[in-house]
Design brief:
With 321 residues, the chain is of the alpha+beta class. It is built from 13 helices and ten strands. The chain folds into two domains: 146 residues, no CATH class; 99 residues, Trna Endonuclease, Chain: A, domain 1, CATH 3.40.1350. The protein binds iron/sulfur cluster.
């Protein structure tokens, strides 16, 4: 039977680490305060934090819709189902984006009750208007066709179509490995083995612009794969970024030093996370006020929790809908 626990299990991921570095208060809201906020019996702060955690923005929503559709297309190809046309995929993405906008502007009451099942865009929620910034709308609209075209032309999709020479790994979304009893989460978009070349390929679809690569994230993927499938040499693993906006891909080769670096990062990071625990056995956090607020207003302006950190600026509504 499902057991309600007062505190979540301690876990680690690159995104959790980045959140801790961005703002400790946000880290507390994301990983502790919002825990159990989905339960009708939760207190109003937990409910509010959980709801705000689910707020997204236009770029993230676009990325998530594209990732979901790519996942679905690949599943269909692997099951020999008919391949949809590029136009159909573009239409479908547009439909999801429009739905997200409608839910944000006209269905806030539904989102308040079931934030996991409805979309709320940050641009709408915090502007308190029913319009999106035109520059952002244009940016996303411009990305639509290009992203789909580049996906269909990508090396990794060509490998999916050439599936007889590839061994695909089950693509459950949440993977983790245990390190010192702590779950380390790894989210990989697509993993397969190129049987002809005896190489493992981990694909990361990028829907934004190219940026300085986070080798730690890539190294974590490789480390997971190496342990899970007992791969002898790191040289057998290729990490591929597919750039759906700009087209083309980059294959990364990692070194043993990259793997050592990510293990050191994990050790230092988890120790810092434990500094913010009142009870490490229960994973009970320190009181909220001991998680400092961020000083930089530019960081706050992009954050989901403005309403909680600066309540005087917002008229928060009751949870009793
Ligand atoms: S609004 Fe600012 S201080 Fe509050 S959680 Fe977000 S980043 Fe941190």
């Amino acid at each position: 039977m499902f057991e309600i626990k007062p505190y979540p299990e301690l876990s680690w991921s690159i995104s959790r680490h980045k959140t801790m570095l961005t703002c400790l208060r946000k880290y507390a809201y994301d990983y502790y305060t919002s825990h159990n906020g989905w339960l009708s019996s939760a207190d109003s702060l937990a409910k509010q934090a959980y709801r705000l955690k689910k707020v997204t923005n236009l770029e993230m929503h676009f990325g998530s819709v594209v990732h979901d559709l790519i996942y679905q297309i690949i599943q269909d190809v692997l099951k020999d189902k008919e391949l949809p046309s590029e136009e159909k995929i573009v239409d479908e993405i547009r439909h999801h984006l429009n739905r997200g906008f409608i839910e944000s502007t006209r269905k806030e009451h539904l989102w308040r009750n079931r934030p996991k099942h409805y979309t709320m865009l940050h641009e709408i929620y915090y502007s308190q208007t029913n319009t999106l910034p035109q520059a952002k709308v244009k940016k996303i609209t411009d990305r639509l066709n290009t992203t789909v075209k580049n996906f269909f032309a990508s090396q990794s999709f060509a490998d999916v179509l050439n599936k007889r020479d590839m061994q695909f790994i089950d693509s459950e979304k949440f993977r983790f490995m245990k390190t010192d009893g702590v779950k380390v989460f790894i989210v990989m978009d697509l993993v397969y083995k190129n049987l002809a070349e005896d190489k493992w390929v981990i694909v990361d679809w990028k829907t934004g612009k190219k940026s300085e690569e986070d080798r730690n994230q890539l190294a974590l993927y490789a480390l997971y794969l190496q342990q899970k499938y007992k791969i002898e040499s790191i040289d057998q693993i290729v990490i591929r970024n597919e750039y759906l906006l700009e087209g083309g891909h980059v294959d990364h080769k990692l070194t043993k030093q990259d793997l050592i670096n990510v293990q050191h990062l994990y050790q230092a990071s988890i120790e810092r996370m434990k500094d913010y625990l009142n009870d490490p056995v229960k994973n009970e956090p320190l009181p909220l006020h001991q998680f400092p607020l961020q000083d930089d207003p530019r960081v706050c302006s992009r954050c989901n929790y403005q309403e909680l950190c600066f309540p005087e600026m917002y008229n928060s509504e009751s949870d009793d809908v």
